[in-house]
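Hey everyone, long-time lurker, first post.

I ran two proteins through the pipeline my lab uses and got sequence/structure pairs for each. Pasting them in order. The first:
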Amino acid sequence: MALLLDHQFRQLPADKQVETRPFLEAVSYLPPFFDLLGSTVFSPIKADIAGNITKIKAVYDTNPGRFKTLQNILEAEKEMHGSDWPRVGATLALMWLKRGLRFIQVLLQSLVDGEKDENNPNLIRVNVTKAYDVALKKYHGWFVQKLFKAALYAAPYKADFLRALSKGREVKDEDCLEKVRQFLVNYTATVDAIYNMYTRLNAELDYTV
């Protein structure tokens, strides 16, 4: 579980503001998660997450004092870019990044909740499909959706996936899932806070790729 638990997300303060620097540090370790899903079809999502992290960091590095929180960045870019906002800069990068983060969150939560295909309980297709449907499907065109359906057949067995999450160590499924549950507490709160911020600032866009 070192992949996740070595890089826990911070507990949010009472005002639910997400500090930029610790957020960027925590998410920088997440792209390799997609290697565990067993298909190169997930490579573009991995690359998209890594690229969007880089874009947000580039903006943050220009003025760390001004951009202490993610909301500081969105509000500053709204002022800077006028009518082009929110389809620009770190605002657009974070919009897509949060969707990748939601995919991870829903997949892991589905596993923790014990959701499974009764006919194929050793597979994680049900969990991956739920995560895709919730987080990404509505933003993908027909062709990308077809690619995803094909990728499902390369999804690993549940036991192999959990072992990979544990960096190859032999760990009981229950112990691994308990650590995932712990990880999800602050992670889910952070993702929810970012989604709520986009709604509050009217920064969400629904176009497909």
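...and the second, right after it:
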Amino acid sequence: MALTIFILRLAVCILAFPMYLLDFLGLWNWICKKSLPYFLARFTVMYNEQMASKKQELFSNLQEFAGPSGKLSLLELGCGTGPNFKFYPPGCRVTCIDPNPNFEKFLIKSIAENQHLQFERFLVAAGEDLHQVADDSMDVVVCTLVLCSVKNQERILQEVCRVLRPGGAFYFMEHVAAKPSTWNYFWQQVLNPVWYLLFDGCNLTRESWKALEWARFSKLKLQHLQAPLSWELLRPHIYGYAVK
């Protein structure tokens, strides 16, 4: 099986040679950072339509983590185009972080469409380094379809714990590796090298639930599901929340 995967990977990589050449010349990263927001602006519409009920379920108890003032301070990591905004409760104070500055104009549009929220600021930063956010300053941190592409999951979860106040919660919804010995897992392994380059560091084969289980949260509510998505490679999901 390993030899079959290697041969198919090689064939896919040969087909994707122009992309690898652009990467070698140092051009692909610029192209990807510019074009990805346009792709995600379309993809997240489809994703929200197909995952609406699960997102509503996930975020249904957000307000329970509001501070003494009753206002919810929320930090979203890898905010992208802002597809989660409509699921947040009214009056929520939202701070957004994304390492790609090209998302900002899409974010401004989403903010204008979600007047029920109080937008605080947009920071261009990686989730592994949240030095611009104070310790114990957030009631909630949200991260959806992000852990698949971060460089260091352990580090980003350490930063999440640092910025959350005691009793605060980390909400997540992530696509993950399929069960071993399934055809979906087979094709995830075959396509992952090209997928990683094509979608700006996204990994199809990450077992992100393990990083969450190892993180120092006092409580973890995590569920696996087969998401009702058109793209079968992305159907294996985890979602839930963890309490500091």
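Reply from user beta_strand_b:
Welcome! Quick read of the second one: The chain is about 40% helix and 20% strand. The longest strand covers residues 164-175.
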